[in-house]
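Good morning N.,

You mentioned wanting to compare the apo and holo forms, so I went ahead and generated the holo version with histidyl-adenosine monophosphate. This is what I fed in:
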Amino acid sequence: MAINIKRPNGTEDILPKNIHKWYTVEKVAKETAECFGFKEIRIPTFENTDLFLRSVGETTDVVQKEMYTVMAKETKFTLRPEGTAGTIRAMLQNGLLNEAMPQKVFYLLSCFRHERPQAGRLREFHQFGLEMAGSASPCADAEVISLAKRILDKLGLKNIELYINSIGCPVCREKYHKALRAYFENRRDELCETCQSRLVKNPMRILDCKSPICSEIAKDAPLILDYLCDECSEHFEKLKTYLTNLGIEYKVNPKIVRGLDYYTKTVFEFVTTEIGAQGTVCGGGRYDGLIEQLGGQHTPALGFAMGIERLLITMEKQGLDFLDSKSCDIYIATMGDAALEKAMVMARNLRECGYCAEYDLVGRGLKAQMKYANKIESLYTIVIGDNELAENKAKLKNMETGEETVISLGDKFTDDVDSVYISKIIDSLEDEINPLAENNNGKENKENG
Ligand code: HAM
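and this is what came out, ligand included:
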């Protein structure tokens, strides 16, 4: 039987040529979160399955259909389908919730959901997310939404709509569930099997069922906004005022219910129509009951997560800039063993100064080495052969302009001072000030430097 060692469906390899795009999103997201006082948390890739049953909810698609669960020595573990449950578990387990409130953490992690793969929908995907625990105020909702918006803006993303809704608290839910049951009861037989059981246990989940028939039936279902209690209504109104004050445009979309059970009050999504059906680049909301549900004190909390793949697809589609990928600063081409030995030390010294330096490791001829230097887009090259060694000089070539500068190789190349000397040359060339004259000698520079 043929062995299949290919990458599983719905997973992706992130190749070196694209990694700078990931670094761009990660850097912007992290730095923005830090500006708002959030600190990074790292949590395990898998958790006890019960954690997700308790938090994400037993009647959600994620738990019912999409979790990767393994039985290991009689314990059930699940690869995290999202980051909130594990993060709150970690905050509880490590006593973070006993410290000064609000507690604010962010994370970058991979998630696993056994969904039908399509553009922007993967089985392993990556999230940048954050959670804030300890504030019941709608200011916190506005704060978290404005943080998400700031990240999207800093990445340069355009045409992204913010949709907000309130899905109330257990008080509003009681009335709302009744209304939903009454509505769906009439068409019970047309619902998928899962939704028929949801009708009894958790009718709100029918609203985000992915089956086309259920979504069609759900179109005219009663809206939660019509059932909000006074406290939830007031919270929502204040949030809207704060967003307006902050200049953040939004649309109220009473149909957003989110696919996870822990939400209460505010829910929100940032959506683009530019990348097809999977256009939600960020989703989040408040979950005031979750911490208590997981065994902690009653602690209001909220957060969001962004799908990094979806952000990248949108950025590419919009032709946005990414941070430059790190390329080689200086390639040292060599002819002969003595030159190679010199190049090894030279590269070490340059690297100690923070430059990316490379030399030939596979025995190429000079022409092929120069071709390689071009391919890796080295900014500068130096060629060292017997003549250069004898004269103690070599040509440093700027690969973009073709300009060549003769540099002294220095007489004690193993000396650290020489690396400072070479890096100074590169710096001066880059700044286009005082390129070293041919008669400058290394010693003099060493002494001055
Ligand atoms: P979520 O809406 O399930 O929320 O996921 C957040 C984001 O992850 C989505 O908006 C989307 O960009 C991305 N995403 C979700 N599923 C996939 C997939 N299969 N392939 C690619 N990207 C995907 C949560 O996970 C909540 N934990 C967010 C949160 C944090 N709420 C409060 N705090």
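Confidence is low (pLDDT under 50) at residues 412-417, 430-449.

Happy to go through it together on a call whenever suits you.

Best,
F.
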